[in-house]
Write a structure and sequence with these properties.
Helix content is 34%, strand content 27%. It is of the alpha+beta class. A five-stranded antiparallel beta sheet has the order 2-1-5-4-3.
Length: 139
């Protein structure tokens, strides 16, 4: 089954019901799509996140690298890592530091021009910290 772009209800349901956090930012880095799983993961409601810079969830020390990679992806029309799942850092509304598994893609219009970036995210904090503890223990 293929959802038609002319059927906004289907797309709204997909965004709302997908199991992972789904974020879309425009070419300026402004959050335009923020589903309920984003709220559960990052702590910000859609009302707090929509219209804000994605810096909202990017730790300050990683912002320069993020924006450099983002600008390159927008210019290229593709991410450097393709569909590879990347574990990265994020910040929760309450200040907690998170580790998140994310995939990124450049969203393009019919002419191939970049419209922004979509990301799917899942909390990996517990797994990541357990792996680090195992490594520190020599195992």
């Amino acid at each position: 089954m293929t959802a038609s772009p002319r059927d906004p209800i289907a797309w709204e349901r997909i965004v709302a019901d997908v199991a992972d956090a789904l974020i879309f930012i425009d070419t300026q880095g402004v959050i335009r799509v923020w589903n309920a799983r984003c709220e559960a993961l990052f702590g910000f409601s859609a009302g707090e996140a929509l219209g804000q810079s994605v810096d909202l969830i990017i730790p300050e020390h990683l912002r320069s690298a993020h924006w450099h990679a983002f600008e390159q992806a927008m210019a290229r029309g593709a991410t450097r890592h393709g569909a590879e799942v990347r574990t990265t850092r994020a910040t929760h509304r309450d200040g907690r530091r998170l580790y998140v598994d994310m995939t990124f893609s450049v969203v393009r219009d019919a002419a191939g021009h970049a419209l922004g970036s979509a990301a799917m995210a899942r909390d990996a904090t517990e797994r990541y910290l357990a792996e680090r503890a195992r490594q520190a223990a020599g195992g």
